[in-house]
Amino acid sequence: MLRTVFTCIIVSSLFFAAPSRAQLLFEENFDYPDSSIITENGWDLHSGSGGNPIRAYAPGLTFPGYKSSAIGNAVFLNGGGDDANRTFPAVNTDSLYVSFMVNVQSAPTGSPRFFLHLAESTLDEFFARVSIKTDDSTDVEFSINKQGAGGVSTDNNYQFNKTYLLVVKYVFIDSTENDCVSLFVFDSTLSATEPPEPTVTALIRGVDPVDLSRIALRQNTATPDVTVWVDGIRISQQWEGPLVAIRENPENLPLAKSFKLSQNYPNPFNPETTLRFTLFEGRFNSAVQLKIVNSLGQLIHSKYWHALPAGQHEYRWDGRDNSGEIAAAGVYFATLSNSHSHETIKMLLVH
Q: Are 89 and 25 in contact (CB under 8 A)?
């Protein structure tokens, strides 16, 4: 295990400064109309029949400083449906980096299940599989493996309903069955330079690809379903600049203070409650979304406002889910988000 990590770090550093790799190979911000099917916008279907296609919904995910933050929409992978992929220029030497934002709504217990991976042009084998699981339904583990076996998981200390920035690093090494793949997880602060060590590194197992030229999104058919939001995919052979370029804030606005979500009232409640929030002056206030999930991270109710002015606002939730049914008694989490930030409160519904 120690030798695996050492090889990934040393080999990749030998190629790190190659100027020919300082370009963005792929960028996907899902910047097309709300509720669009991604296979109608440049992605190819490789599994499924169109019964549950992958769609992009407004608003997109946000992560402070990430260049693809708050651009376009985010895709929702909710299990039991189509899988889709998109091509990028083939790479078979040095290192390949894939960064993206992810927000986990629910995850299975037991074995991790993957929702994003790389592939050769033929799609015969899946490489650099990014997976999730939970041990106690309250925390999330991310996992990375090279091809199938040899997966390694992070500590169980990441949260549901929080946006993280993940960076997958794949290192091509001469000879066979010795390529290396690792995963970096950022929870709040983006590193403009590559950290000296990844969060986790997969064991070196399985065949090596001829090259990598496809990025794929996967919906799981197993129960419980893996449900995640994914946004802002960037692919490059270099960390600095094209991959995780820091986005400037030219107006020098207090970005983290664009709104305030107050505690709902009453709380506990049966069956109705009122959520109050304040939008401050600034350029991030136009589109606002409210999501209410249960303790398992499953989406129960949502509301989207295309445009709201600065000031105080109220929204009354009648305790029903999106299908009109009365929600079960229990703990719920309400998250208010706009194009840059989000806040979450805890609520208790009683009957």
A: yes
Q: Are 113 and 134 in contact, with CB atoms under 8 Å apart?
A: no
Task: Specify the pLDDT at position 91.
Answer: 94
- Residues 26 and 88: their CA atoms lie apart, in Å, by 6
Please report, for the chain, the start and end positions of each structural domain, with discontinuous segments joined by +.
2-236, 255-349
Distance CA 57, CA 241 (A): 28
Which CATH number is correct for 255-349, 2.60.40.4070, 4.10.91.10, 2.40.30.20, 2.170.190.11? 2.60.40.4070
Token look-up 């709040």 returns 188
Q: Please give the helix or strand (H or E) that residue 161 lies within, else none.
A: none
- In whole angstroms, what is the distance from residue 208 CA to residue 146 CA? 9
The more confident residue out of 11 and 180 is 180
Dihedral pair phi/psi, residue 219, rounded to 5°: -105, 130
Distance CA(13)–CA(19), nearest Å, equals: 13
d(CA 261, CA 278): 7
CB atoms within 10 A of CB 327: 18
Over residues 270-296, mean pLDDT: 78
Q: pTM value?
A: 0.69
End-to-end CA distance of the chain: 52
- H-run or E-run covering 342: strand 342-349
Please report, rounded to a whole number, the percentage of residues in the chain having pLDDT higher than 90: 38
**What's residue 258's pLDDT?**
62
CATH class for the region spanning 2-236: mainly beta
> Would you place residue 6 in the very low, low, confident or very high pLDDT band (cuts 50, 70, 90)?
very low
